[in-house]
Structures are given as C-alpha cells and as structure tokens.
Design goal:
- With 129 residues, the protein is mostly helical.
- β1 and β2 form a beta hairpin.
- 35% of the residues lie in helices and 5% in strands.
- The chain is built from 4 helices and 2 strands; from the N terminus they run ααααββ.
- The chain is elongated and about 90 Å long.
- It has a two-stranded antiparallel ribbon with strand order 1-2.
Length: 129
Amino acid sequence: MRDRVCRDLGQRLIELRRQRGLTQDALAELTGIDTRDLRRIEAGANTTVHTLVGLAVALDVPIIELFRPPTTVTKRAPGRPTKRTAPEPPVMRFTRATRRPEVTGYVVERDVDGRPPKRPKKKPSSQRE
C-alpha cells in the first residue's frame, strides 16, 4: 500500500510538472532540493512532508492535489534495464596503397602467405620524381 501511494504521488508530480512546462532541474531549483532527489521522488521513493510542501508551493497547488490519483500511468518494466551489447572492437586492415593500418572491418587483411603486406621499398633519391 505504501509503495503504491509513493509511486502514484511520483506519477502525479510528473503530471503536474509537465502541465506547467517545467523540467526536473527547474522544479528542483524552485523547490530548493537536489535534482537527484526529485528524480527519486518521481520514481516513487519515500520523501518528507517538508519536501512535499515545498513541491506543492513551487507547483502552486494545494498539497492534497499531490495525493490525487494520477490520470496517466506509465508502466515501467520491473528490475534493471538490460545491458546493450557493445559493438565489436574495430580491427586493423592494411591498405595496399599506403601500407598503413586502417580501422575497418573485423579481419586484418593479409597477403596470400598469411603475413601482413610488406612495406614498399623506398626508391633511391636519384630515381624519385
């Protein structure tokens, strides 16, 4: 029962804040509380009467308005969100033109014999153009 009241209060707080076009940062500043605390209250965490009075004053509503049932309910999935899989790390590929590694696909390009391409030999200064 207590958890449901806190969750509904947080949902109602979100509704009232959005109706007035306020961000969490703006409401927290008006109330004099930390933004992190406001996020927790909106998520359904327990709070003090002192904080609720400050929120009601900042939203310009009677305190009883915070305890009315929310008109919209957003359902959150229980538990922690699943981790997104990280993209595979890039692998080096040697380009034939420059013989320098270039980050591209998943395999290092190799010559026919399985070794990385050899660096081109420098031309003697007399043969350079």
